[in-house]
Every structure is written in C-alpha cells, then in structure tokens.
C-alpha cells in the first residue's frame, strides 16, 4: 500500500489523533517518548492499544455495514492486541453486537472478563468444555454430521438448550457442513428440543470471482431452508474483506476482525477510499545500546551488515521471538523520536539493530516504535508490503506475553 505522508496526516487530523501522535516540534516529540520510557521502568518491548482508534474503526465499519450489528472477531488474541484488553474496550461500543472466537478458552475468558454480549465459538465444541460453554450462554457452531449426538447430551447435563449457529461450507473447504449435504442435516439439527438455532454463517475464500459463486450457493441454500421453514437465525457472512468488497453479503450482521484493529484486509488503496482506518496499536521497545562502528566493522549473525564508513548503530530490545518479522531487514524502518532509521544486519530472537548514521542522534532509553500509526512507513499495511509478508502475520504473530498498555 502506498499511503502518502499527506494522506496519513489528513486521516490523523480527521480522527482527532494527530495531537497525540505528533508534538509541536521534534524536541517535544523526543521528550515525550523518553518520559513514557521512564514511566514504564522497563526495557522490554510492549504494545500500546488506542481506545480512540478502536472507536474510530468501529464507527467506520458500522457505516460500511449500513448500521448492521457487528460480530467482532477476536480470534488469535484479538489479532495480537490482547483478547481481554481489546474486547473490554469494544464491548462498550453500541455498534458491537457480540464477539466470535475459534477457541473455547477464548470464549470463556470473555465471560470471565464480565462481557455479557453474545459470544460465538466458531470452532469445534470440545466435550470437556461443552457443559460450561452452554451454561455461560456461549453460542456454538454446528457443522459436524453428528451435531445432534454431540450437543444434546451436553445440553441435557447443562440443564438448558444449546444455542447454535449453522456453519456452512460453500467452497472454502476448511470448516462447515458442505452445502450440498446441508439442508436435510439442518432440518435434523433444528428439530432437536435441546438445540436452539440462533444463526447461520459461512466463510469466503476471498477469491473475487469465486466469492460470488459461494454467495449464490449460500443464498440458494438459505432460500430452500426458509421455504422448508427451517430456522436460520441471524445470517452473517462478511468478514473484513467482505465488508469492503461484498455489500450484498452483509445480511443481518457483519463479522470483521482485522478492520476493527486498523489494518486493511486485502486492497488497501481501494479500501482506504471507502472507509479510512487507524491502526489501533503501536509496537514499541527501548534502545539498549548505542555504539560507533569503524569502517569494516560488522553487526549480528552472518555479518550481513558491514560498515562502509564510520557510523553509529543502535540495538533495540525486540526480536522475532517477540513477533517482529525477521524480514524487517528487507527495507523496514523504525521511528525513534521524529526520525526513521533503517533496520540492518539480522533480526535475532531478542534484538534488532538500526543504522543511526554519522551523528549520535539516539540514546540508550529512547523509545523506538516499530509498527503503528505514528508514521506512514510503519503503518502495518506498509510494513507488510515492504518486507513481503501478510498484514495478518504482522498482527497475529506478536508475542502474547508482551505487555499491553491501553492509552
């Protein structure tokens, strides 16, 4: 994605975030990051989560969806932002109608956190947690041929019906009941007195032409089910990609994930024109060493970087073990104060190096921002394009053990 500096500043101004992202001068900006570093009293990397950005993105998603309820997908630790922090913030927004995750443990954590909005488990219901899931009013995905046999004993022991969404496979070939076999199966599941059908959904392959075929298969099956008076509940199909590119698949509610967290799902230039998002997180760390190299000196494994002249380099306390991509050496930059510095050498498990240049312009203890909304070069979509990885990898591979700070 080629997000220009001008476009980025316009977006920040419109969102009201600019005063927080840039100071009145480079000196003020640098002083601000140092104060934050001292307050934290740690050199370990951390993630900052912005409530304002989450609110902005939720409102943009809601506008695109025509005001339909949003079933917020918080799988994979809320796309790296942290399940409990991100979900607690999102739950306060009226546009959010509920949450979806793919692991039973994630769904139960939402309830433990006090979230009362509907929660959908999009994965298989594990027998060992089935009773607890039903008792906590967590909606389950029904897609196996033996769904009735699996769920009714659990519902009986829980003392209440199991609420389910039909999960239909229209061509993704990953999860769901194959659409060709679905109608008689749906009738059987819906006829059980211990099962209550609350919804029906599918997943797109995100192949533009085939998505349309999937959509027709889904609509045809829904029409037959409704003709046979099979309950379908709330219908949902559009993830973040469908939200932007398949308005005819918005149905009763939409099911975005990455868009809520501020990254564009597939075609950023086009998507930004429809609804501009703000990354809701910043990946930050501290400078832990600053040293001057002489000509011929090298850094890191493999001596991938050899100084051609005397130059300063800085070591950052973050590596691929924390979720920062190894391929960052292929052109990525890091923001320290108000200046960008190129990543050099090799990203090791725990450290990353940047070339500072002829003058020593950074100090030990300075804050370095590697990914976030603070500069177009480190926007998650731009970072992903620069180093040749998926933007989903940029978010989801962040170490869950990193501190997450809500701002």
Topology readout:
Elements (H helix, E strand, L loop, with lengths): L4 H11 L2 H4 L4 H15 L5 E4 L1 H14 L5 E4 L1 H5 L3 H8 L5 E6 L2 H9 L6 E3 L5 H9 L2 E5 L4 H12 L3 E8 L7 E2 H12 L4 E7 L6 H20 L6 E3 L3 H6 L22 H7 L6 E13 L4 E2 L5 E2 L4 E6 L16 E4 L2 E6 L7 E6 L9 E5 L8 H8 L3 H6 L6 E4 L1
Helix pairs in contact: 8-9, 10-11
Question: Would you give an account of this structure?
Answer:
36% of the residues lie in helices and 22% in strands. With 407 residues, it is α/β, with parallel strands linked by helices. Strands 2, 3, 4, 5, 6, 7, 8 and 9 form an 8-stranded parallel β-sheet that branches. Strands 10-13-16-15-14-17 form a 6-stranded antiparallel beta barrel. Strands 11-12 form a two-stranded antiparallel sheet. The chain is elongated.
What is the average per-residue confidence, as pLDDT, rounded to a whole number? Answer: 91
Strand-pairing-aware structural class: alpha/beta
Number of strands: 18
Characterize the main sheet.
8 strands, parallel
Poorly predicted spans: 1-10, 12-39
CATH architectural label of the largest domain = Alpha-Beta Barrel
Which of globular, elongated, flat, extended, rod-shaped describes the shape? elongated
Counted up, domains total: 2
How helical, in percent, are the residues?
25-40%
Rg calc: 24 Å
> What is the CATH first-level class name of the largest domain?
Alpha Beta
Intertermini distance: 27 Å
CATH-defined topology of the largest domain: TIM Barrel
Strand content: 15-25%
- Count the DSSP helices: 15
CATH-defined superfamily of the largest domain: Alanine racemase
